[in-house]
Design a protein that fits this description.
84 residues; alpha+beta; NE0471 N-terminal domain-like; NE0471-like_N; DUF2442; three-stranded antiparallel beta sheet; globular; DUF2442 domain-containing protein
Length: 84
């Protein structure tokens, strides 16, 4: 799904993070509004960042710690919604 990443962390935690709210803001994230651009990311050698290289050579990156917190936050919101 465009704008959503499934992330596997070294401690065994697996999370899903929805980045669509950031992408929708535009500005530096405008590049990621194209599904082909979004799907073309790299994970750095040590797994500390997920990075996209824009057409003009700039990097858009999210740190692993921030992504983990966001995965956990979104999972908790989802859990609370299902618990009703």
């Amino acid at each position: 799904m465009h704008g959503v990443l499934r992330l596997d962390f070294l401690d065994g935690y697996v999370g899903v993070v929805d980045l669509r709210p950031w992408i929708a803001r535009g500005k530096i994230f405008t590049w990621l509004q194209d599904p082909e651009h979004f799907s073309d990311f790299t994970v750095d050698e040590f797994g500390h960042h997920v990075t996209w290289r824009t057409g003009d050579g700039h990097d858009i990156d999210f740190g692993a710690d921030n992504l983990r917190r966001e995965c956990e936050r979104q999972a908790e919101i989802h859990r609370l919604m299902l618990a009703g």
